[in-house]
Amino acid sequence: MREFDYQRAHDVAGAVALLGADPDTRYLGGGTNLVDLMKTGVERPARLVDIRELPLDEIGTTPEGGLRIGATVTNGGLAAHPEVRRRYPALAQAVLAGASGQLRNMATVGGNLLQRTRCGYFTDVTQPCNKRVPGSGCPAIQGEHHNHAILGASDHCVAVHPSDMAVALTAFDAVVRFETADGPGQVPLADFYLPVGDTPHRETALPPGALITGVTLPPAPVAARSRYRKVRERASYAFAIGSLAAALDVRDGVVRDARLALGAVASRPWRAVAAERVLTGAPATAETYAAAADAELAAARPLPHNGYKVDLVRNLVVAVLTELAEETAR
Amino acid sequence: MTAVTTGTPTRAPSVGTGHTRVEGRDKVTGAARYAGEVPFDGLAHGWLVLSTVARGRVSALDTEPVLAMPGVLAVLDHRNALRLETDYTGLMGMRPDPTCAVFQHDRVPHRGWPVALVVAETSEQAREAAEALVVHYEQEPHDVEFTGERPDAYPLDGHMPAVTEKGDLDAALASSPVVVDAEYTTPEEHHNPMEPHAATARWDGGRLEVIDSNQGVTWVAGELANLFSLDPASVRVRSEHVGGGFGSKGVRAHQVAAVMAATVLQRPVRVVLTRRQMFSLAGYRSPTTQRVRLGADTDGRLRALEHSAVSATSTVYEFVEPSAGVARVMYDAEAHHTANRLVRLDVPTPTFMRAPGEAPGSFALEAALDELAEKCGVDPVELRLRNEPDKGPVSGLPFAGRNLAACFREGARRFGWADRDPRPGVRRDGRWLLGTGTAAASFPAGAAPSTAAATALPDGTFTVRISAADIGTGARTALTLVAADALQVPPERIRMRIGDSAFGPAMIAGGSMGTRSWSWAVRAAAGELRERLALGADIPPEGITVRTNTAEAIAALPPAERHSFGAQFAEVAVDVGTGEVRVRRMLGVFAAGRIVNPLTARNQLRGGMIWGISMALHEEAVRDRASGGHVGADLAGYHVATHADVPRVEADWIDDTDPDDPVGIKGIGEVGIVGAAAAVANAVWHATGVRHRALPIRPDRILSAAAGAPDA
Fold first, then answer.
1. What CATH fold (topology level) applies to the domain B2-32+448-555?
2. Chain B residues touching A41 at Cβ < 8 A
């Protein structure tokens, strides 16, 4: 492990100034991913700027009826917040489906968005990986990829984004707020993660040196009836092999509004726009849900060992939407 | 001088009553030091550099820049390493695995092979330098592909004969009205004890001292003496607390590297393995492919049994995972063939791992029995009762206690087996399909010679010394209870000292033989001491000590089939839409000899059963064909059951005191995992109607089966 300097920032401007334009410096939030990557040599920063003391640890309501979530709010604090649980239950469920109690008490919202893929080739510095060493190749495509992407991948990278939280945030049109030396900015989460293409090492639309200051959730009445279902290879403490954040508004047997985002299927949380289009205005039946899933999965390009994810996602969409519709009807 | 009294012979026995661990308080308060934590003055830290190619030779190492890095003291590799002696025979007649004889040549036989040790003032400096060391290789094509269709597989004896054959198998199968012919596979599995391997070595006045985490201090001391050509009396190995071993903590590259560096540098050197390094240096359970063919009458009585297993080993050492051995104990048939075969690949050497042979073997055999029960329309418990042999199916020897039937009857009663509907795929609870399954368990029960010393002290307490290992089993506590009964005193008056090779040779913590072997010696020493004290001796300040060696008594044991047995039951829930499998409850009823400490015994048996859940559903080390190495070699990638995966797991036992053992013990170390994975897999069939013959039963396998893929 490379020796590194450690500095603690006390305000947002100070943090941004401390990091400056130094590509060898990283912001340190909960450290639940970054520190692991430093131990294994995937990340080798010369300097860490600790942002945990910044005044970004609050959740407030917006005048429009949405939520403003600070970047250093812990995952545990987010999941426990009464307004999150009331207005966006799928978000609380998603956070609680991830990691462990100890990790959730350390991990932050900003860090969660920026966590790296758990692809076994990415995390092993003795292996090639286009994301870690651009141009070195992607051994996962011919190798172990049973939990890799079926949507939006490229010949350069087939890794999936590991976050549960970001899947729910994507379903609810979250906007990421950030600060740079030139002032604040924001970007919708839908555009936050860059397409893989031939640059899998470029993961987000954040400008260099930017510090995530928070996430804004616009009001979404439909989200009050929402659900996050995560499928994984054991009951707890594992990354998803397929997950779904869904909200459904059904009236008179017809879908009025639907929000769907998929996890563990792509390099980013996957907003299921095609599925939402099929759902909206259609009868709230299992056939509709299956047709919606099929519309989204038409673009799926599974690899030899992850074709099961197509069935998994389809079944998940039908099962969760059926449950949500039944609850709405009650 | 003080006279001492031992208690009256009518004192209620301590053996058989539940006692918390005598070192429990030290462990939960952090007072107990593990091998990587013991402080040493002037300690230097070694970090192993492992090969990144799977086959070839080291052509160069750029050590100069590394030696200039901060704190770096030395780089040891094949060019400057001490020469080691590997031409000897060690424990149980085994030759040393050359993997442990580090840096003796430039050949690289697998990915993750130790090619250098970097020693520095701090652990961080050593690691940084080790990771900066550039190693050049001449790479050669490698072969890491394990399948059951390897024509190069060859029979190998290992610790039992490779092949046993009686009767005409083909004829018996041809004449059997019911035949099962199926192939089962188990993946590469790793011990992954919580505590990583760690050793510190130092020279002190011409004596080598090693603080280690291992399963047998005299074993490791003997291996180190042999490897470094030292007088065994000049080597002392201590291993006070061990955070799990499961077969992986014998002599390994890290101890040898630490001793070598301590010898070269003449200062204490510590080497600790990372979790990732453990995946290639600590041993593992080979993947297996097993074919089971059963021929039976319509009532399920076996006429033909074939169990043929293939496992893998490295190119430098032959270790066989003897999966077919379990059939030689469990079931008889007029035609009975078993074989263990081996393929050599460019992979690390596997080793003993909890229930070696029996764990994967029982999965195949007990799953095949379940398939036979289905085909015959016979209840799976009844099928096993109908096939109870009255003597060893292969050996012809009598069983020294085979209480398997009693385990099944008691287990079936408590599990509610009588109410079971045999039809698969018909029980539903919401999105879950429910099913139940059962399987038999067995593991050899044995004892090995051990020495022990018991000392009476003037203050009325006793110190017992034996080079036993408590690898988390509660051995220290169990031996305290055995000594207390032999001395007829309360356990609080016993000071049990273990984990020090200076105490003389004793069995390792392995083969389910530790507690039995050590108890035999402790009881003999303590019993003899009590007889001495009964004569009314005065106790001098240094105490009165009695030493014993059980070699003669154990050699006098009559030959017999000696095993612990058990019956496993499991209930599972399966969501065939998502592929999730959850175990809802498990029950294991065992006949495993006299239980010394019910509290820790239940813990150990349950631990085995929970491991069986992991084996059935989670555990699998994935090897990358291109690089020959692992993918996801850490506890995020290598899944074991979490608390949420573990439902109500009950372990209990029936009275099974072994009359041939002075304390009545058989052994419980391994039997808990045996059959557990088969019980879960059989329950998955009962839930879904689909046979899953490849472990682990992952969600993608459930989904592929639901989608009609043939290779479920």
1. Aldehyde Oxidoreductase; domain 4 (3.30.365)
2. 131
